[in-house]
Amino acid sequence: MRFRNLIQSSAGLLLCALPLAVAQAATGGEPAGVIQVDIASCLAAAAVDDMNKAATACAAVIDNEKTAKADLIKALIARAAVYARHDQIDRAIADDSRALLLDPTLADIFNARGELWLRKGDKPKAVQDFGAALKINPNHEKAKANHKAMAREIERIGAQMALAGKPSFNCRRAARAVEKAICGNRELADLDREIFGSNARAIREARNAAEAKNLQREQDEFIARRNAEFGRPGYDLKKAMQERLQRLNGVDGF
């Protein structure tokens, strides 16, 4: 009786040991360990800009809880680059942002995300990221160039805002009715300033002195006609100014 019980007990232990033996055989005799995540497929697909393969392969790495931190960062950056190249800006920003949360010392990624913010038209966030990249690496050439360009752009926008609603002449000295009308209307004031600036540019870019003289004569004739016809029935000051600006800049605005 005791012998039969011993046989049954031994058989039970053998059955329990079989799954372990199978697992060991599958891994070359070693006990089953942590599943290796295939980061190579993700990086390879991203390198050749294969959007479909990269999305699938990188997602397998990113969504796997067992992925090592370093590999997760690499996969996020690789997928973000692919998204960026295919104009999926929001997705690219999301991946770069997640990578930066995992490692906030990545100057290249701060700069890359800054360029993405710029593509979205969010200049303040772009400047912030370029600045963050430079804080980490003051010699980061791309970040320096981007930050400098954005600083000039912000300065230009600030200057435009300061001039908004102001014409090319001093409204305190406005004597003519047409000048007072322009000073009293922000849209007309902006048009007047743009006409003045475009005319100055055209003269500056003239091929010779004679051409420059003709351009200035046209401007003087426009001003004289504007002054004389303002207030007469059928005269549209705004339309006349818009037509003058279009003539100066061309149909395409340049």
Descriptors for this entry?
single chain; about 250 residues; about 0% strand; disordered N terminus
Architecture overview:
This protein is mainly α. The chain is built from twelve helices and no strands. Helix 3 runs antiparallel to helix 4 and helix 10 runs parallel beside helix 12.
> Span from first to last CA?
105 Å
Number of helices, counting only DSSP H or I runs of 4 residues or more: 12
SSE topology string: HHHHHHHHHHHH
Portion in strands: under 5%
Based on CA atoms alone, the radius of gyration comes out at 35 Å
Secondary structure category: mainly alpha
Shape: elongated
Name the poorly predicted regions.
Answer: 1-34
Kindly state the percentage of residues in helix.
over 70%
Q: Tell me about the biggest sheet?
A: none
Number of strands: 0
Overall mean pLDDT: 83
State the gist of this model.
With 254 residues, the protein is an all-alpha fold. The protein is built from 12 helices and no strands. The chain has helices at residues 2-26, 39-47, 51-62, 69-85, 89-102, 107-120, 123-136, 141-163, 177-183, 186-204, 209-229, 237-249.
